[in-house]
């Protein structure tokens, strides 16, 4: 994360999460596409956040809560298609936020629901003052993780060559006191090693740490000077957020009609949205066809916000996404479909029956 206040701040410490297992024989390009997209939410998701003020060890002061609210608003005010709503019930929240001193962290994207289903457990923490310039960037950074964005300095396109001994020694000391495994997980480890997807390195990203001089061998300029990203969201942060989460809610989405296949004519990372208005109350099946990797999520429209009903993710497997769900005549539903990889044929479809 960013700061110009001091040279050795406490920094984000992501929870250690084992990568999802994929077929060991999976095509490298396909794997890279899956890894790049797998933790992102489908667009038009309404996420709920809850402050864990009922647990004394996790309570935050009023100004700290407001700093987090302001950071959610800053992301939302970019014009993205995600929405963030504060709720008073932990069971309704995907993001459950505490303020235990010492470390700031968040689960990344869909890990918040896939790996932390117990509503009594945290998914995000803020361990220092969020009202300073560095603190404001901390709030933006952790919310960026919750939206599905990883650490930018671990971008495989960054081309950073670390002085690994110096990095391990630096983060073993004050103020972080990390062991080698934590330092490797948060800094040395490269994400998505196949050079097929991902944006160019953005050294000003809100998702980038600052680094003291002498920790980086290449680019050579950082052997003698620190790498300190500019404050706030970078232009590339904004572009990436709008690419994955465009505000196209006013678009006319096609209707999925029973037994009529809809061809998927999109590129990896893009999303299609459909409406479903059943005229008979019964259990329906929704399934993709072809060799594509997709995630599909079904919501019900309750006039206030779309309510999640079911989802399936076939990425990196040899089966197709499928949902079986009872739908009620007279109600409206939305199917969100995000494409990871188009497969060998480059063609596929989705059908309701």
From TrEMBL:
SMART domains, per the entry: ZnMc
Membrane-spanning ranges: none
Domain (Peptidase metallopeptidase) ranges: 37-187
Gene3D superfamilies from the UniProt entry: Collagenase (Catalytic Domain) (3.40.390.10)
SUPFAM superfamilies: Metalloproteases ('zincins'), catalytic domain (SSF55486)
A UniProt-annotated Pfam family: Astacin
The organism's place on the tree of life at top rank: Bacteria
InterPro entries according to UniProt: MetalloPept_cat_dom_sf (IPR024079), Peptidase_M12A (IPR001506), Peptidase_Metallo (IPR006026)
Listed name of the protein: M12 family metallopeptidase
Source species of the chain: Paraglaciecola mesophila
